[in-house]
């Protein structure tokens, strides 16, 4: 039997590796790795590796449609993209991407923000928020962009990881419009007054349609 053990973050940066692994004892992991075979490949996000492991070799894996199905909704034949809410903050003069989890949005708050997006950006398609931290956009047209999963960019600068490809400029405009809308929304203003992080941007990633299998 072939067993894949997926351990995200196992390889730490060299400058912190020694301190992180000081006096660390992992006999079970050492046994597994000792029976393994080393096969070095280019680095890739976990979501992309999972798709390839299950036979989905698209350059832009359709993680939106796949995750939507996992959240219990029918993706049908539509093109979907994840548009997760994030908090952007300045650190050392650059914008850093926060995690949806740190927002701690309620389902009601997510619904109000998504309703505003649907009202002002209806030409893109339909926004859905089946979970407070996982939002989707059912697209009218499949986008020609390459994106980065949110999990691989949290805590990192925004600019290098924005959408690339033939429609990159258009999607950067869409992100900017969403940022203005979210920043000015009364809910986010109230959150900031209460000392809570605002859901002041969207992170689009994983566009595509549900695979045949």
Question: How would you explain this protein's 3D organization?
Answer:
Helix content is 34%, strand content 17%. The protein is of the alpha+beta class. Strands 4-5-1-6 form a 4-stranded antiparallel β-sheet, with helices on both faces. The chain has a two-stranded antiparallel sheet with strand order 2-3. The radius of gyration is 19 Å and the shape is globular. The mean pLDDT is 92.
Offer a few descriptive terms.
single chain, 213 residues, alpha+beta, 4-stranded antiparallel beta sheet, two-stranded antiparallel sheet, 8 helices
Task: Indicate the structural class.
Answer: alpha+beta
**Cα distance, first to last residue?**
22 Å
Ranges where pLDDT stays below 50 over 5 or more residues in a row are: none
Total DSSP E strands = 6
Task: Tell me the layout of helices and strands.
Layout: H1 14-20, H2 27-34, H3 46-53, H4 63-70, E1 79-86, E2 88-91, E3 94-97, H5 100-103, H6 107-120, E4 125-131, E5 134-139, H7 168-183, H8 186-193, E6 201-208
Antiparallel strand pairs: 1-5, 1-6, 2-3, 4-5
What's a concise summary of this model?
This protein is an alpha+beta fold.
């Amino acid at each position: 039997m072939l067993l894949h053990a997926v351990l995200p973050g196992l390889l730490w940066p060299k400058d912190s590796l020694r301190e992180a692994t000081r006096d660390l004892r992992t006999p079970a992991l050492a046994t597994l790795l000792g029976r393994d075979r080393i096969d070095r490949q280019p680095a890739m996000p976990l979501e992309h590796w999972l798709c390839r492991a299950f036979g989905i070799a698209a350059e832009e894996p359709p993680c939106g449609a796949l995750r939507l199905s996992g959240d219990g909704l029918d993706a049908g034949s539509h093109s979907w993209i994840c548009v997760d809410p994030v908090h952007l903050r300045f650190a050392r003069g650059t914008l850093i991407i926060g995690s949806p989890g740190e927002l701690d949005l309620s389902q009601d708050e997510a619904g109000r923000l998504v309703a505003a997006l649907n009202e002002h950006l209806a030409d893109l398609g339909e926004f859905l928020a089946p979970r407070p931290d996982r939002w989707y956009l059912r697209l009218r047209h499949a986008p020609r962009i390459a994106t980065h999963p949110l999990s691989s960019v949290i805590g990192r600068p925004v600019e290098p990881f924005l959408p690339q490809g033939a429609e990159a400029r258009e999607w950067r405009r869409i992100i900017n419009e969403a940022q203005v809308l979210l920043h000015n929304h009364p809910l986010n203003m109230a959150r900031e007054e209460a000392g809570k992080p605002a859901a002041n941007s969207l992170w689009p990633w994983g566009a595509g349609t549900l695979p045949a299998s």
